[in-house]
Amino acid sequence: MAEVTLDTISNLAKRRGFVFQSSEIYGGLRSAYDYGPLGAELLRNVKAEWWHTMVQIRPDVVGLDSAIIQARQVWQASGHEEVFTDPMVECRNCNSRHRLDKLEDPSQCPTCGVRGELTDPRNFNLMLRTHMGPVESEENLVYLRPETAQGIFINYESIRRTNRLKLPFGIAQIGKAFRNEITPGQFVFRTREFEQMEMEFFCRPEEADQWFEYWREHRFQWYVDLGIDPENLRLRAHENDELSHYSAGTADVEYRFPWGWDELEGLANRTDFDLRQHTEHAGEDLRYFDQESDERFFPYVIEPAAGATRAMFAFMIDAYTEEMVNDESRVVLKLDHRLAPYKVAVLPLSKKDELIQPAEKLAESLRRRWMVELDVTQSIGRRYRRQDEIGTPWCVTVDFDTLEDNAVTVRDRDTMDQDRVSIDGVEDYLAARLG
Ligand code: ATP
Asked: Nearest-CA neighbor of 149 among 109, 115, 183, 196?
C-alpha cells in the first residue's frame, strides 16, 4: 500500500472541497483554514460524536458554550499571561523563527541548515491580543481564549449550583481557541485558529489518580471505536520537564502522523490549581461543600483536551486507503459511517428524465434523515470513484430496470458488494446499517 503523506491528504482535502486555506484568493494565510462543504460535515460529525460520548450518554457530565472573549483577569489568574509561552529562537542567517523545544538539533536552523546562528531563546507568549471598544489602550486589552478550559472554571460555581451537581461531575465544551503559534504548519495540525473539545472532570482529590486512569483509557478507546487503527495510536506519559504550569501529571494520546508520533489529545491532572487561583483572584470561594462530612475543599480536576480540527485530520489520514481493483487503483476514505460527510449518494445511471425523476424523489425522502448527495454528472464509474474518495458509505443507483422492478442497486463502499433493494425498502435497508 502506498504511504500516506501530508500532501496526499491535503491535496485530497483541497480537490474534493474538505479544507481550503483561509483567504486563499489573497495568497492564503498559513495560520487558519476554511472548512468547505465536506469538511464542515466531517468536522461537525467529529464534534457530534465527541458530544454524544462525553455529554449525551453520561449522567455525570453537562455542557457549556462560553464566550471566546473573557476578562483579562481570567488569564492573569490562570497563569497564561505570565507563563503560556513557548521558547522561540531566530536564525541570524535567514531570519526564520522556530520553537526550540521542537528542533531536532538545537544548534541548526531547520530552514536554511546553517549551524550556530540561532539566537538564545526568548519566551514568546502565545495569546492573541485585541482591544474591546474603540480605544486601543492597555485597560482595554483582551485575549482571544487559548483554551476553552478557563470558560469552564469561571462558570464552575454557577453551573454546579444551577444544576445541583454533586462530585464527581464534568463540564464539557467545544469551541474555537486561538494561539499565536511560532510555527504553524503540517496542514491543519497546528494552526493559529482551531477548535477544541475539552472536558473538566471535578472529583475528590483522593480520587484524582483513579479518574485520570479512567479518562486516559476512555479517550484512547474513543478514537479506536471511531475507526482509528490502534497500531497508529499510543498513550505517552509526559516527563516532568514537559509538564504545563498547572499539571501534576499529563499523558498524551498520540497518533502516528505522516511525520511521526505526535499529540492528538492531552490528558492532565490539573489538581485544584485553577479553582484555587480564581478563588484568590476573583475573591469568590470556589470550594465545594460536602454535606455528608460538613467539609469545604477544592475539587481536583482531570482534563481530557482534544483538538477537533486535529482529530478530523487524523481520521482522514487513518481512513485513507489505496487499493487495486481489476488492475485499477481505487482511493477510498474508509471513514466510520458516523463520521462520513455524506451517508448516501443517489446516482441515476443516465441523465434521462425518466431516471432523474425517481432519483430526485428518493434523494428527497432520504434527505430528511441523512446527508445525501444526488449526483447526475459524468460516467457512473467516475461518480463511484468520487464517492469512494469522499468516504460515502453507500451509493444507490437508479437504472433502467428500476422503471420495471421498482428497485435500485445499493453499493457498499468498502466491499463494493451490490444489493438489489426495492425503492420502498431503501430507507429501512440504510437505517439498519446507519442507525
Ligand atoms: P503543543 O505542545 O503541540 O503546542 P499543547 O500540548 O500545548 O500542544 P494542549 O494545550 O494540550 O496542546 O491542547 C489540547 C489539544 O488542542 C491538543 O492536543 C491539540 O489537539 C489541540 N491543539 C492545541 N494547539 C493546537 C493548534 N495550534 N492547532 C490545532 N490544534 C491544537
From this structure: 196
Q: Is the CB of 10 under 6 A from ligand 1?
A: no
CATH of domain 6-71+145-316: 3.30.930.10
| 28-51 tens-digit pLDDT | 988 999 999 999 999 999 999 999
Pocket flag, ligand 1, residue 265 (CB < 6 Å):
yes
Give 238's DSSP letter: P
Mutate to test the pocket of ligand 1, among 194, 199, 200, 274 (most ligand atoms within 8 A of CB): 194
Q: What is the mean pLDDT of residues 132-138?
A: 93
Could you report the per-residue pLDDT of 317-367, keeping only the tens digit for each?
A: 999 999 998 898 999 999 999 999 999 999 999 999 999 999 999 999 999
3-state secondary structure of 114: coil
**Is residue 1 pLDDT above 70, yes or no?**
no
Which range (94-108, 166-180, 265-279) has the least confidence? 94-108
Question: How far, in Å, from the CA of 309 to the mean position of ligand 1?
Answer: 10
Residue type, 209: D
Nearest Cα residue to 346 out of 405, 415, 300, 402: 402
Q: Quick one: how far is CA 120 from the chain centroid?
A: 34
Give the residue, out of 148, 190, 267, with the most ligand 1 atoms within 8 A of its beta carbon, to mutate for a pocket test.
190
Q: What does the domain layout of the chain look like in residue ranges?
A: 6-71+145-316, 342-434
Query: Residue 307 Cα, ligand 1 centroid: separation in angstroms?
Result: 7
